Amino acid sequence: MSRLIQCLIVRKDLPWPPGALIAQACHASSAINHTTIGEAREAFGKAEGVKISIMEVENQEALQDANDKLNKYGVDFKLWTEQPENFPTCICLKIYLEEFVEKYLKEINAEKVL
Fold it and tell me: Is 18 exposed, middle or buried (0-12, 13-18, 19+ CB in 10 A)?
C-alpha cells in the first residue's frame, strides 16, 4: 500500500532561529491544507496518517527553481512568501502518495533533513 506524504522545502540560508523557520513551514502547510481541505481531512483521518518530509535548499534562487519545476510538472503546492519582507521562504506540497512525489523531488536540488 502506498504511503501518504507531505513534503516541505525550506531555505537554509535564512539567518533565523529554528522556531522562525518552523513557523514558515507551518504557514505553508496550513495554506496548502486549507486549499485542499477535503483531501487533507481524509488523509489525516486515516489510521496510517501522513508522513512529513522536510527538505532544504541553499537559497532563494534554489527555492524559485523548485517552484518553477513543480509548476511545470503540475504538482499542487503552496509557495509561502514572508511579509512584510516579501520574499519566499518555504514550499509545501499537498498530500500525495509517496511514489508520486519522489520522481519530482529528484529533479529538485534539495537535501532531505527529516
Answer: exposed
CB 70 within 8 A of CB 77: yes
Distance (Å, rounded) from C-alpha 60 to C-alpha 86?
12
pTM score of the predicted model: 0.92
**53 pairs with which residues across the strands?**
7
pLDDT tens-digit map of 24-64: 999 999 999 999 998 888 888 887 889 999 999 999 999 99
- Residue 5 contacts residue 97 (beta carbons within 8 Å): yes
DSSP class of residue 52?
E
Number of Cβ within 10 Å of residue 54's Cβ equals 18
CA nearest to 109, candidates 58, 75, 60, 74? 58
Location of C-alpha cell 486549507: 34
Please classify residue 103 by burial: count the beta carbons closer than 10 Å to its beta carbon, then call 0-12 exposed, 13-18 middle and 19+ buried: exposed
